[in-house]
Amino acid sequence: MALSSMSLVSAYLHPLPATELFSDALWVEAMLRFEAQLARAQADCDLIPEAAAQAIEQACACVLLDPAQMAQRARETGALAMAVVEPLQHWLRSHRPEGLAWLHWGTTTQDVVDTANALLTAQALALLQQELQGLQQHLLRLAADHAATPILGRSLLQPAQVTSFGLKCAQTAAALGRSSVQLQRLSAQALCVQLGGAVGNNAVLAEEARRVEQALAQRLGLGACGHSWHTQRDSWLRLGMEVAVCGGALAKLAKDWSLLSQYEVGELSEAARGQTSSAMPHKRNPVHCLQALAHTRSVPQLAATLLACMEQAHERALGEWQAEVVHWAQLWTQVHAAAAALRLAAEGLQVHAPRMHANVEGLHGVVFSEPLTQVLARWLSKPEAQRIVADGSQQALQQARPLPDVVVDHLVQQGHAVPAELQSQLHAAANAQLAVQVSAARCHALIDDMPRVQHPGWEEARHDTHF
User: Fold this and answer.
1) CB 53 within 8 A of CB 43
2) Which of 74, 91, 109, 168 lies at a 20 to 30 A Cα distance from 397?
3) pTM across the whole model
């Protein structure tokens, strides 16, 4: 989305204001590209005269379209592409009448918009994959550097067991890799030419429809599915739902990093960027996480709205498809912005490993209550072991003493013999370094096995969407 197309209250939330996705200029360009390349494909298939194709190509290159005037005309007709076809007709009538009869031949306005949308989505996908790749690479670096850095695992926002910060990063990197693979797989099925004609049966092009579709698809760099998807939006929406899933993974990362950045936790912080509070100069607000969370907040609702738009009547929708076009662009724009924000956050992320260690140590071993219970249950009944460890955990926090020592004292006070072997096993079970070794091993295995994000280059993506 271009900065000029944003409002002030939305522009400050976008980390990359110069990035264009589904802008007015790109929509116009893509629709003109469809008309020009359709004529060229039909001429290649010997269905229309070469002179007509050249005239239509020239018209698409020369006609000047004003988005405001297009919007007004589209409001009157209910068809966005009519605001493209009519100016082309006027231009041809005045300058190259030999192309007039063949403009938009055998197609319909939804074919124009759907194919243009596929072109813009291909570009959006390339840019999203680019951001995902950058974010994944930073996460993999963090995972490798901190595979054995102990950090509290939190369950229901409470301290649970010890894991590693590297494993947390690797798990997110793997989720992004899985989304990337799915996006590429689904895009091959979804990013296709639409060429169904008025009701999806190719009545005008008839037996030549498949040949024209393939020629047009090759020229546009899209797929040729061989059928109309005017009101059968399953492949298209599956791609959209994976974008929403990716948005969910990004939201989870932004939420985790935000919580770890709280001052009283202090395990992470975004790169310093000067004063971020008008009243409190000490604050280090996680601005990029804020941006990512703001952009992903509407993703579930957008996904639900797109699914609701599948209820399209007969061969052409009345309102549902038109709503889909609007919300489709919003979904991709929001998820791309969230990915960009988190990529920027990851670039300058400051990991405070000493604070992570201090937060583990500050709980005096109570996060090892599960392995301590397992050790103790070999000597006592399990219910009694659980009771002793639960009571001991409260005392350990109150007295600032290691939980294994508190448990041993409790056993002695209860008249139990506490052999040296049991004391040794209890202290071994509460060793953070031993605990993190398991997470480190899993981290390295995950790094080796996870799918990597791949994406076409930016210039290639832009070339595919330009007339």
Assistant:
1) yes
2) 168
3) 0.93
Distance CA 80, CA 82 (A): 5
Rg (CA), the chain: 30
The whole-angstrom separation of Cα 221 and Cα 458 is 15
CA angle at 320 for the pair 315 and 322, rounded to the nearest 5° = 95
Q: What tokens were used for 111? A: 């074919």
| Residue appearing with tokens 């009448």 | 97
Looking at per-residue confidence, does 20 or 90 come out higher? 90
Q: Tell me the pLDDT band of 278, cut-offs 50, 70 and 90.
A: very low
Judge contact between 225 and 152, C-beta under 8 A: no
The rounded distance, in Å, linking the Cα atoms of 146 and 164 is: 7
| CA 339 – CA 124 distance, rounded (Å) | 12
Structure tokens given for 170: 């690797």
Is residue 35 within 8 A of residue 112, CB to CB? The reply is yes
Question: What is d(CA 414, CA 409) in angstroms, rounded to the nearest whole number?
Answer: 9
Task: Give the CA distances from residue 215 to residues 44, 47, 218, 392, in Å, rounded to whole numbers and listed in that order.
Answer: 8, 12, 5, 75
- pLDDT for the residue numbered 433: 86
Task: Return the active site residues.
Answer: 277, 316
Q: CA 267, CA 352: separation in Å to the nearest integer? A: 5
Q: Which amino acid is at 138?
A: H
Dihedral sign, CA of 238, 224, 462, 40?
A: negative
| Residue 168 pLDDT > 70 | yes
* Cβ–Cβ under 8 Å, residues 289 and 342: yes
